Amino acid sequence: MENMESIKNLTPEDLREAVKSCGEPAFRAKQIERWLWRGLAGSFDEMTDLSKGLREKLGQTHNVDALTLDKEIKSSDGSRKFIFNLYDGAKIESVLIPADGLRTLCVSSQCGCALACGFCLTGRRGLIRNLTAGEILDQIILARRALGPDDALTNIVMMGMGEPLMNFDSVAQALKAITGEFGMGMSYRRITVSTSGIIRKMGDFGRLGLAKLAVSLNSPDNEIRSQIMPVNKKNPLPDLMAACRRHPLRPRERITFEYVMLDGVNDAESDARALAALVADIPCKINLIPFNEFPGAKYKTPPADRVDKFRRVLLNNNIDALVRQSRGADISAACGCLGGE
Ligand code: SF4
User: Fold this and answer.
1) Given 28, 43, 63, which residue is the final one in a domain?
2) Catalytic center residues
3) Rounded distance, CA 15 to CA 8, Å?
4) 157: domain CATH number?
5) Over the stretch 208-224, which tens digit does the pLDDT of each residue have?
6) What is the number of structural domains in the chain?
7) Residue 44: which domain range?
8) How many CA atoms lie within 13 A of 180 on its CB side?
9) Are 290 and 323 in contact (CB under 8 A)?
10) What spacing in Å lies between the alpha carbon of 340 and ligand 1's midpoint?
11) How many angstroms is it from 162 CA to the middle of ligand 1?
């Protein structure tokens, strides 16, 4: 891929300016947006309702695609991992998870991650760089191309590589294109952004109102959470819970709390009782995710009966809780395992 900026990195305003600077009326920008987000065009030549002159001028300064598909790996459980090349040679991953009649794409927001959560392989590699809006969006576009028209994506979760709120501007720009009338037109109800708890950005995310919130919680105890997730030292649990209580929710909307269960660390019945008390006044559901072991991991997967007991304590305290078995474990696509190919 020649090293030019992808046109998918442009905001709608920037795109209008780019079109005008080519001597064309601004409404052509809407045609281009339709080709990018609905038509899944991979080249300017496919945009057949634009003049040849405009296509050539845009092609001199911009690429269409921000990513190239390096390879796709299929799991025995139906999950599909997409590995993409960035223009600078780095790689990122997305995972398609078909389940319960839904086709959910787990999208990355950064290449690597600086936050070093102890249960996460991505965090071990450190942060390489933030993704651009075009690189976030192209994970969706290239997955849709691979799926074909009969297998449309139903849901998007930003839970892949990276901490979305540490790349807020690009994530916000991408969410506008995903939900926009002239973008992909998806409902915010089908999009979830998961944070490890970057409190200073949670207010901005709530005001944006373009996706549902998930929070990676993992312990009801401030000190244990700091041991599992260093990000908790600067974003302590009491302040994080206060930010969750302030988060604006629409009718019937709930916050999802992700809870990676670590053998002997956060999986006792007393932890479940403390967790139930912690979230009791927040409209929420809890996803319990038994830890996926990887080589060199310092944690172990808890036994299934302990996971069941933990869930029952939550249910008995009127907290909605599901056990989420990670998908794609055989292709290193399970939760916390991206970037480990
Ligand atoms: S779990 Fe998320 S925030 Fe934590 S290190 Fe992994 S990618 Fe980063």
Assistant:
1) 63
2) 93, 335
3) 9
4) 3.20.20.70
5) 999 999 999 999 999 99
6) 2
7) 5-63
8) 17
9) yes
10) 13
11) 6
